Amino acid sequence: MIIPKANKLDALQLQEVESIAADFDCSILEIQGRNRCVYAILGDEGREVMFKRIAGLPYISKVDMIESPYKLMDRRSGLSDHRVRVGKTEVGKDKPFIIAGPCTIDPANPNFYLESAHALKEAGVDALRGGVWKPRTNPYSFQGDNHSLSIILQAREETGLPIDIEVMDSTQLKLALEAKVDVVQVGTRNAQNYCLLKEIGQLTAGSDTAVLLKRGRHMASPNEFIASAEYLVAEGNPNVMLCPRGTTPPLDGYRNHPDESITPLLKNRTWAPVVVDPSHSVGHADFVPACSLAAIAYGADGLCIESHIQPAKGIGDDPKQAILPQKVKDLVSACNEVWKNRYLP
Ligand code: PEP
Ligand code: MN
To answer: Which of 94, 149, 294, 304 has the most crowded Cβ, counting Cβ within 10 A?
Structure first.
């Protein structure tokens, strides 16, 4: 990892660094953080002479050799001071960052989504979520609808809140990016779909688009989870939020095995904000508040909660796990209290 003295290398400097790296069969990747660029050495970077030659250049501040499976996501990397923003809000700065909204947008009843969005704005959330396209276990279940994209765009327009939607393939990704969604969500089933992760990283490189990366449900180890995020950053987008959402096998009575407890581990190993999804974790509206508060106590920077104005009339996961916007409002203030009193190492 190369860190220049200025915010960015100019074209000639970059050329010089690239030519040194090329002498050692390595190449250079520019990663645009919010405040400055850092440069990753791609290839066998354990070449001491190459390091010394680059570190000796007058415009280089330092060259770090990080022994880590995820050099860019590592807390010791040059991106450690990178802050992720969604819209105008820095995630996890002064209070928990709350994303909320229905699991699935019902294209036949747009008012459920729009009214939920307004009620959630009133409840004080920072961003709206809503499934346009849905990963369903059963191929005969509702798979989502392109029309739902216009509904969530209308909700953004009317509320002024940034929006988060899940994409599962290249076509959906391109539609989402054309619509300038603020957060692209990668679901648990695609958390290790490296081709999709790379494409998202490439198409959002250098942009303000953030990515909410869910943890792989088959108990992806913290390192595997972070390595998935590394794919996004290595392609040029450091605006990554890590989202534990429960793993299999489920704890008897819950939808999954709650995993908000990995938050301190993730925060110890990386600089990326952690935004926990309590809804898929416990999978039952009654248990969502406790899981949310636990996540904040564990040091999470935010939450992604399913909420619907009339859960019983929702589709997808809403009837069983969405909480009412009024509950979200109460939860936001309870989370703010826990946030103020949480213990951070
Ligand atoms: C969702 O957020 O509605 C969803 C399908 O999430 P996950 O990928 O965590 O199951
Ligand atoms: Mn859902």
So the answer is: 304
